[in-house]
Amino acid sequence: MQRYLVSFMVFCLLIGCGNQEETPKTDTGKKTAAKKTDPRAKKLQQEALSLFGVLPDKMPGSENDTPELVALGEKLYHDKRLSENDTKSCNSCHRIDNNLAGVDNLPTSPGTEGKNGDRNSPTVYNAGFHISQFWDGRAKDLKEQAKGPVLNPVEMAMPSEEAVIEKFSKLEEYKEPFKKAFPKEEKPLTYDNMAHAIAAFERTLITRDRFDDFQKGDLTALSKDELTGLTKFIKVGCATCHKGPLMGGDSYNKTGLLNPYENTTDMGRFNETKKEEDKFLFKVPSMRNVALTAPYFHDGASATLEEAVKKIAYMQLNKKLNPIDTKYIVKFLNTLSGKNLVAGPKPESEETSKKSR
Length: 357
Prior knowledge:
The protein is mostly helical. The protein folds into two domains: 39-57 and 208-346, Cytochrome Bc1 Complex, Chain D, domain 2, CATH 1.10.760.10; 62-202, Cytochrome Bc1 Complex, Chain D, domain 2, CATH 1.10.760.10. It is 38% helix and 2% strand. The protein contains 14 helices and two strands, in the order H-H-H-H-H-H-H-H-H-H-E-H-E-H-H-H. It has a two-stranded antiparallel ribbon.
């Protein structure tokens, strides 16, 4: 009898230790029939709506895109013949095949000759909602962006616009699609039209996630831990820059605002504008799909989302996040992953670091 009494007392003591804030548990956030609405959910949803709004149903400019134009753009997006040696397509660096999240999950991407560029390839998903394209904003829209990599000597390395058109004018399979996409033009196969078509296809690449469900009224869409993560995301100050429906993508900010970033070689927008105030300014990345698009920052230097969250909080807000707060914020950021999208292979830097431990 005494043995059972002691066991019962130990059990009660263990139960009584559960009042402290715990490390987030593994939970999928999936709804069940018995799932109850968290008391914080309604107030948090209203605050989130005021801070972020709702992602629009369509991208700017898509109202004039025809099915024929989009189909042509999709074909071109995946065509490696847009590169000098037929080895690279748009999809090579911004992968959407196999439900990937619009990136190649590499720190920087290799070009036609295997030489890497100097910046991380951002996701193509939702890109048409951004204020501009590229990390430094040098392209005003998707069409202008689509023209760049094809002629970049490190990326796809085609020697000129004329060389691209000469090459594709010999491909019988493109004659009819260009005519259908641009029916009013006597000579539809132009470099400008190629970029136009690719942009039209990219305007269809919009993701929807569980946070969207939450914003639209499903108060059970986020788990207890994820709601805590959203609360911390707001209170820590992340939403100062990561605002709007994309939680980013709508402004520029200095990387290393309060504490310096270790990479001082790449000066961001300054390389384009030559304005002193633009040194180290980069477009604020969107948090949509961020859990699927490692590695992070413009140089791909941070292999994990946990590392990136801690680093950005210190650099931009001068706050040193503890491991528990970091895990909660990462929990929330995972709710921003597009439904059915998956992460690609782990970045080489992460694998290498694990082997060296």
